[in-house]
Design brief:
Blueprint lengths: L1 H11 L8 H8 L4 H9 L4 H17 L4 H21 L6 H13 L6 H11 L7 H10 L5 H9 L4 H11 L9 H15 L5 H23 L3 H12 L7 H14 L7 H15 L1
Length: 280
């Protein structure tokens, strides 16, 4: 029991030993390492699970440069930990879900894609502030038919879900590689969102679309720096007073500070109304 407590403490204090592969190797090769990690992941404490997920991410990344870590992961820990992370995708605690999604993506758990995709559709209209991160990890892992994910979000009856799409689209830029092909796909989504029934969705979609379109124009016409800056300045005037990312940050802080580790769509929408009152 005492040894287990020591391991738990070392894992939760890993933040003080970031990227120290020898420190990691010492932990994962210790007797009881598997059961300790399992117990921490099942703790239902988002702080403990967040620290444990940080350790797991760096542990897996260290496998490429530390044979001891790689052997421990391949022989025992991967088969024990991955199913628990997948199970926690649907934890009641929003912050636990956030940590787990990020971890599965960053450790490149490609075999987890079917479970992650199923969880995405279950959470799509229940936890919209999670969606940009979730979609980002699904794209990173190479999910089949990725645009279908955004199509399902655009078709949602929840404006918060559609608003998340406007945030996600804003992460794309126009470049020389597949630029025109991707632009045409994104344009299809923008056409819908720029006419959305909800003003916040329309405003963010219009703003990010104009940025993308300017990038495209600059690539095709090689605009002068002065012309580009002038047009960019005009587009800046369209920037919404409340973006999805700003709302997400404020709401996440709010529910964390008030220990509200799960929320309803109604609570989120009420918070958004308050945010709009503050910026108007």
């Amino acid at each position: 029991m005492e040894h287990s407590k020591v391991l738990e403490s070392k894992i939760c204090n890993y933040l003080n030993y970031l990227s120290d592969s020898e420190y990691i190797a010492e932990i994962v090769t210790s007797p009881g390492a598997v059961s300790t990690l399992i117990n921490l992941l099942y703790s239902n404490d988002n702080e403990i699970i967040g620290d444990t997920c940080l350790f797991i991410r760096d542990f897996v990344l260290s496998c490429s440069r530390n044979d001891t870590c790689k052997q421990a992961w391949d022989s025992e820990l991967e088969s024990a930990i991955i199913p628990i992370l997948e199970y926690l995708l649907l934890a009641e605690n929003h912050f636990i879900r956030t940590s787990v999604i990020y971890t599965l993506g960053k450790i490149c758990s490609y075999d987890s894609l079917p479970v992650m995709l199923d969880a995405f559709y279950q959470l799509r209209d229940r936890d919209p502030i999670l969606l940009p991160r979730f979609v980002g990890e699904l794209f990173w892992l190479g999910v089949d038919n990725p645009w279908e994910i955004l199509e399902s979000m655009v078709a949602s009856s929840q404006y918060t879900t559609r608003w998340a799409v406007a945030e996600i689209l804003g992460k794309f830029s126009y470049d020389s590689q597949d630029g025109e092909e991707n632009f045409l796909i994104l344009h299809k989504f923008y056409t819908q969102l720029r006419l959305d029934a909800y003003p916040l969705v329309r405003a963010q979609a219009e703003y990010t679309y104009q940025i993308l379109d300017l990038q495209r124009q600059n690539y095709r016409e090689n605009l002068s720096k002065s012309d580009y800056r002038k047009q960019r300045k005009e587009i800046k005037k369209l920037e919404p007073s409340l973006s999805f990312s700003r709302m997400e940050s404020q709401f996440s802080n709010y529910i964390y500070q008030h220990s509200l580790f799960k929320y309803t769509i109604q609570e989120l929408q009420s918070f958004i109304v308050c945010c709009l009152a503050e910026v108007s």
